[in-house]
Amino acid sequence: MARTNFDQLLQAGCHFGHLKRKWNPAMAPYIYTERNGIHIIDLHKTVAKIDEAADALKQIAKSGKKVLFVATKKQTKEIIAEKAQSVGMPYVIERWPGGMLTNFPTIRKAVKKMANIDKLMQDGTYANLSKRELLQVTRQRAKLEKNLGSIADLTRLPSALFVVDVMKENIAVREANRLGIPVFGIVDTNSDPKNIDFVIPANDDAKDSVEAILTACCDAINEGIEERKVEKADEKAADAQAEGEATEEVKPKRAARKPRKAAAEEAPKAEEAAE
Question: What is the pTM of this model?
Answer without folding.
Answer: 0.81
